[in-house]
Specification:
By secondary structure, the protein is α/β, with parallel strands linked by helices. It has two domains: 39-140 and 223-299, Rossmann fold (3-Layer(aba) Sandwich); 145-219, 2-Layer Sandwich (Alpha-Beta Plaits). 34% of the residues lie in helices and 24% in strands. It is built from eight helices and 14 strands. The chain has helices spanning 38-53, 84-94, 107-114, 145-159, 183-203, 225-232, 253-259, 284-299; strands spanning 12-20, 23-31, 60-65, 99-102, 120-123, 128-130, 136-138, 166-169, 174-177, 206-211, 214-219, 242-247, 264-268, 279-281. The protein has an eight-stranded mixed beta sheet with strand order 7-6-5-4-3-12-13-14, sandwiched between helices. The chain has a four-stranded antiparallel beta sheet with strand order 8-9-11-10, covered by helices on one side. A hairpin with a 5-residue loop joins β6 and β7. α4 runs antiparallel to α5. It is globular.
Amino acid sequence: MNDESECGRCVFISARTIFITGQRVVCAMLILKSITCKACRDEPMVSLRTRLAAIPMNRLILFLDFDGTLTPIVARPNLARLSRQVRETLRKLVGLLPVVVISGRAPRDLRRRVGLQEVCYVGHHGLSCLEAGGDVTWLTPPPHRTLVRRWVQALRIAAEGIDGALVEDKGMTVALHDRLVKPKQRSRLRRRAWRLLAPWIARGSVSLLRGNRVLEARSSRAGNKGTAVSMLLRRPWARHRVPVYFGDDHTDFDAFSVVHGRGLAIRIGGRRGAAGEDGWIPHPKKLHSVLEWLAARQQK
């Protein structure tokens, strides 16, 4: 049997003969093969393209997370690179419809990595925004820089002596990455972070946001990706458009809840259906194929 077989042939039964102390015993064994036919593997992509095709092209707006969505997750944040192929596909799309890249990164860092001036960049998980031709604006009030420096100091103390722990100062937020930390040390690192930030948590000046192998300290008054999407959809260039949001982790789920009922929320990777998403794509490479299809469809 091969994986090109028709549906219903992905599971088969075999019989095996076993001899035990001279007695012949026939044991029927179910062998469940985790081989899925090609039609089943492609079904989510076909369904997604069908749903995208139902949206009028002059009403579409795309929201795309960066790390884990447009680019694969890497060990260190500074190593993330947007491939030339994805950049060229985005270049085609921004000439046809509004494109927003939304991330926990600072907006200027996003623009530098994406390399397209026409894109709208939302940074700090919905706190800041850099629109084409404009400067950075704050969607919700930013914390005072002096306060952020104290968070940086606290998290650096939390990371001391734990190999692989990385503190990233993003200007208005601070991220504690544990991707390179041994699994047994990760809970210890998180406990340290909570304990050292406890004074600001108790005063209500900081909240901790959990992402994909990252814990981020941010203002408790800060918005999230969902509030950012809601605000941008009221902009003249986005008003009356149907949002399609692509994201991969918990920080994107607030935006998913905003998009539900008015557009499509598409999860990249992770356990399919766990976030209540409208569609699922297994990894960033498959997302690129969807974006290429979309750009080609627009140009027909």
